Input
Amino acid sequence: MVVPQRDEVNEQARETPSGIGGWLALLCLLLLVWQPLTLALSIARSLTSLTIRGLPMALVVLAQLMVTGAGVAAGLALMGTHPGAVSFTKWSLVLSAAMDLFVYATPFLPNRRLPGTTPLFVAASIAYYAVWIAYLSRSRRVRNTFGAGL
Output
């Protein structure tokens, strides 16, 4: 019986990462902490405009809460390594991107963007979500943790 040397075992472990770590842990942190925190701050800044903007603004805020809730659920599913968590997370990221684009393209929520900078925000938002979706689709760690059938 040949026992692998310690260096061989460590090298194999580095080549086949699995579990929640690295970029996957960062994505979970963003979904579980950053996204709800930024939404809370955004809503807190916007609440004074609710009486002026009325029901449309309230509906957009409610939609943002639901999308953020889906993101938190996706982060929890990833952390728990649940089957289907990767697909659910991809859909959550698509919903978040669509919500961002809707907010940037409509006047329902107040914003502090300089005139002419909205296309930059749209491009940055699309790039952010596209990078995470590509990561979930191509990552060796994600494939090893959640199965090869992604």
Remarks:
- Residues 22-46 form the longest helix (25 residues).
- The mean pLDDT is 88.
- The chain is about 75% helix and 0% strand.
- Helices lie at 6-15, 22-46, 50-53, 55-79, 85-105, 118-138, 140-146.
